[in-house]
Amino acid sequence: MEKKELIAKVNEVLAEEFEVEVSEITPEANIKQTLQLDSLSLVDMVALIENEFGVKIPTADLGQIKTFEALYDYLAEKGN
């Protein structure tokens, strides 16, 4: 999957699941703030991403993924 396709898919899946407008999801935006995630919904988001993209996100890596750009890069790297 090309990165452009990956970004569109991530944005679509997260916007639908967390009921935000796709336009609110920008590369530099903070994931937790944009999606209004608490610790429980963060776990839900990780599970959703793992199921949707077939990429395991260890807890140790999660702390490094703060923006959508970081998430796209992580998925692009680990998904190949």
Would you kindly provide a written description of the structure presented here, covering whatever features stand out?
It is a single chain. The chain has one domain (3-79): Non-ribosomal Peptide Synthetase Peptidyl Carrier Protein, Chain A, CATH 1.10.1200. 65% of the residues lie in helices and 0% in strands. The chain has helices at residues 3-18, 31-35, 39-53, 59-62, 68-79. The longest helix has 16 residues, at 3-18.
- Give helix and strand order, one letter per element, not per position: HHHHH
How much is the average pLDDT?
95
Task: Describe the main β-sheet briefly.
Answer: none
Strand content: under 5%
* Poorly predicted sequence stretches spanning 5 or more consecutive residues: none
Number of DSSP helices?
5
The CATH architecture designation is Orthogonal Bundle
> Level of helix content?
55-70%
Structural class: mainly alpha
CATH topology grouping: Non-ribosomal Peptide Synthetase Peptidyl Carrier Protein, Chain A
Given the C-alpha coordinates, what overall shape results? Answer: globular
Top CATH class: Mainly Alpha
Radius of gyration, CA atoms, in whole angstroms: 11 Å
Instruction: Report the strand count.
Output: 0
State the end-to-end distance. 8 Å
CATH superfamily: ACP-like
How many domain regions?
Answer: 1
